Task: structure prediction
Amino acid sequence: MRVSLKDVAERAGVSIKTVSNVVNKYQHVTPAMRARVQQAIDELGYRPNLTARHLRKGRTGIIALAVPELQNPYFAELAGAVIDAAAEHDFTVLLDHTRGEREQELLVSQGFRAHVIDGLILSPLELEAEDLRGRDGAGGNGSEPHNDDVPLVLLGEREYDLPYDHIAIDNVAAARVAVRHLIGRGRRTIAYLGARTDSANRPAHLRLQGWRAELTEAGVPAPESLVGPVGGWNRDDGAQAMARMLDSGVRPDAVFAYNDLVAIGAMRVLHERGLRVPWDVAVVGFDDIAEGQFGAVTLTTIAPDKQAIARLAVSSLLRRLQGDGEVGGRTLTAEFRLVERESTLGRR
Result:
């Protein structure tokens, strides 16, 4: 039989209300009383009925996370962090994979699952401000929840002047730290792999901006021949960009890559061309995915604080859900750090 609050109260010798206060993590319970109730919970194996709890509040207990690529380790790791952060608040996460396609991002943002989720965390690549502004008043048919009833939090570096909280890192500053590290290692011909020709708000352009700004400030040349365009963000994109640059006759002594996957692809081509990392060409990536720690040459990288991004996103969503959020949107910035490994330091 299912253990009830009453069973726990009887075992602990307290009221049902006191047990409820402990289970719901209210702060006004004394440490001694909390320990007493927790002991009874552990002994009886009590598990709260989260579905009933959420239903009493008119919620489903489910939030959605929509990312462009689950096969990209960065987004997979970020999704795990969001799931952990949501679990601390007794919420389940529904994952959605948009493939970075505008139609899929529109479908998610316009609330086609509004009847089953309490909120949405979205990492958009293609949506413009007008697409998201169109959420207001769209959606339901009178009996179903409208999408504007579902709080939205945005991830990533797209810049929107909209009333939604936005969680990001400072991409320009992070890129400058990466390039400064390479300059400090004596590198002077530093390539950037990851340029895109589309929207100027995207992280690729911000990282390019940081690359250029740091080189200019240091008095190091930043010719366009050192900017390598990519068609995507995966290993083969990095390999192709690196091969094109070398085939053009440009031989950098360092590479700053848009992300770790691009960096890993570039390192493979450097190896195939007989160039040693880091002695001939030093390499810095971005994202600090686990794969970067286990290559033949471990990867120096910029590590965004994924756990902080996840916690900020979930807490912002819950504030909106509880009606505590401001009318306007906030931009919340997570920290990052440079992780130095063999691709710039060599083996010690």
